[in-house]
Structure formats: structure tokens, C-alpha cells
Amino acid sequence: MRRVHEASKIGPRPESQLQTRLSAATSSTGGKALILVVERDPHVRELEAYFLNEAGFGVEFAADGVDALDQARKLRPDIVITEVLVPKMDGLALCRSVKQDPNLRDTVVLVFSILAVQSRAREAGADAFLMKPLAEKRLVDTVRQLLKLRGKWDHAGDTA
Q1: Would you report the helix, strand and coil content of the chain in percent, each value rounded to 5?
Q2: Considering its fold, how many domains does the chain have in total?
Q3: For 23-44, how does the pLDDT look when each residue is reduced to its tens digit (9 = 90+)?
Q4: How many CB atoms sit inside 10 A of residue 126's CB?
């Protein structure tokens, strides 16, 4: 079995409603791509916030899966980054809920976990999977790559 060291792209999603969703999300973040991070560890949350903000992204947080789904419905983020081990609704159930919601199904979901659950993440509908530990370059590069695949990222660091 191969250990995953880099982001594993799980597969392209249709781009049907992405521009509408992108307009709603980027208007509330001053043109920055909006990322919703679902992480229970406050130290990891703080590092993710720092890395993603420094890279030019707007960042919102949720400490549990239920709150994350509510926020996703309100904020319409470009990407949801979720740990698997979050309270109330685990990250894989959150991913399934996002992908089954007609208004959110085009939202990019990145599962970021200490658990080796790449195949389970794929089954849940995740667009990509990263293994912890947190590494700034790997996280930021993966987010940029996912946005670029969706036509949401230009070379200047702004959303398309």
C-alpha cells in the first residue's frame, strides 16, 4: 500500500453552477477565495488560518460538522477543508452532506486528516485528500491547485 505524501486529487466535478457560487462567495471576501476550515484542534486551526491568510485567501472556521454545514449553506465557500475527526458530524459525513445538497454540491471539499482514509474520502465525494501533519507549502499549493482546476485562481493570486 502506498502512503500518500501529496494531495490526491479524487476527480473533477461538473462546473455548472460554479460561477454563480463564486460570485456570492468572493463578493463577501473582497474578491478572495473563501475557505471554510473545519478543525477541532485550536493549534492546527491557528496555523491553517495563518498560512491561508498569508496566501491571500479569506478564511472562516467551524469547530464541528453541524456548524460547518450551516456555515457552508450561508457563506457558500469555494473550498471546505475538513478533518475527519470533528464533533457532532464527522468530516466524511459532512463531505457527503455537502455533495448531496443541490446548492453546495459543486463546493470543493478537501479532507485533511491524520487518518489514512483516502478511499473513504473518495467514497464520500471529496475532491482531494491530504495527510497530516500540516505543511504550509503542501496545504497552500493544494488549495491553489483545486481552485485552478475549477477556473477560480489566476497567477496574481486573485480568484478568476
Answers
A1: 40, 15, 45
A2: 1
A3: 333 334 556 899 999 999 999 9
A4: 28
DSSP symbols for 94-113: HHHHHHHSTTTTTSEEEEEE
pTM of the model: 0.77
Full residue range of the structural domain in which residue 49 is found: 8-149
Query: How buried is 141 (Cβ within 10 angstroms: 0-12 exposed, 13-18 middle, 19+ buried)?
Result: middle
CATH number at residue 123: 3.40.50.2300
Summarised one tens digit per residue, pLDDT across range 96-119 is: 999 999 999 899 999 999 999 999
CA distance 98 to 129: 16
The phi, psi pair for 129, rounded to 5°, reads -140, 135
